Amino acid sequence: MLDTAQLIKLLAQPKKIVITTHHKPDGDAMGSSLGLYNYLIQQGHHARVITPTDYPAFLNWMPGNGDVTIYTDKIAECDRLIADADLIFCLDFNALGRINEMGERVGESKALKVMIDHHLEPADFDDYRFWDINACATAQLVYKFIASELGNPQLINADVATCLYTGIMTDSASFRLPNTTSEVHRIVADLIDLGAVNWRIHELVYNDSSEDRLRFLGHCLVNRLEVYNDFNTAVIAVDKHDLERYNVITGDTEGVVNYALSISNVRLAAFIVERNDKVKLSLRSKGDFPANDICKKYFNGGGHRNAAGGTSTESFPDVIEKFKSILPEYKNLLVQ
Question: pLDDT (tens digit, 9 = 90+) per residue, 141-162?
Fold first, then answer.
């Protein structure tokens, strides 16, 4: 493994750098990636952000977004960039499987791999690791990486600050989760001082819904919400027909699960959605309930204690029944 001094020495001269993050990137994934990108280009590095897939349109405004390449749109070009890179920064994920078919290309590349992440159980593919499961967001770690590890706080300009603020804001559920510590607020205050216009970022991320998305949300709450009071659990399950009916696009389902979690006494909420080739689950929980344990044990996934995800190749109805069938196993934790 590289140490920090060796990494600083490597970055002292312009390098060919690829920055990547997990598939279907969220606000933290894109905020971290573009925040680091805007930092590196100030030092003359030849940096490119490559995402495995598309991402929500409400993130397209961030500084540097015009230089992002989506892997599935330009596979040959991206493969060349990955093969030719000196360094590959892997942000907000800890296993190559999280970047789909890009994972094999990254694994084959002779580039040094730098992981910056806050998820549990990292895989052993990296050459340098800046990792903390207690961080509320990878963007928080990127801030500390630039300011403390690399010793360049003066290079956190308005563009970097804007991106990192977005990442912290979205992954902390607007600073509401338990891991939003006093340190996080001090970092956020610094980012605002450095040029992140906090009210404007909130507007761009949270007040940019299409009419279809709002009608889809209404449909979810009126017709697809089920509450299991015996287990303090709420489930919203939508099938492919729901997605087609409301013209659901990438990003439109983000945050829907939080409405289920907002119900009084609900400690566990699930959003289950039928895609073309699999069923996806997003779980959110309150307090010390381990949503990640359910995803890891039953749905080929994982994540954080209060925010986790998984997938299944079983049928949509079977996945719903499977989820409901495991609730008795967790009743002692759900009903307290």
Answer: 999 999 999 999 999 999 999 9
* Close Cβ partners of 293 (under 8 Å, ≥ 6 residues apart): none
199 and 237 in a single domain? The answer is: no
Same domain, 92 and 225: no
Same domain, residue pair 141 and 20: yes
Question: For the CA atoms of the chain, what is the radius of gyration?
Answer: 20
Tell which residue, 163, 187, 143, 159, has the closest CA to residue 59. Answer: 163
118 and 303 in contact (C-beta within 8 Å)? no
Between helix 291-298 and helix 316-326 the angle, nearest 10°, is 130
At position 193, the amino acid (one-letter code) is D
How would you list the strands of the sheet with 112-117, edge to edge?
68-70, 46-51, 16-21, 87-91, 112-117, 128-131
DSSP 8-state symbol, 224 = I
3-state class (DSSP) for residue 298: helix
* Residues spanned by the domain of 197: 4-206
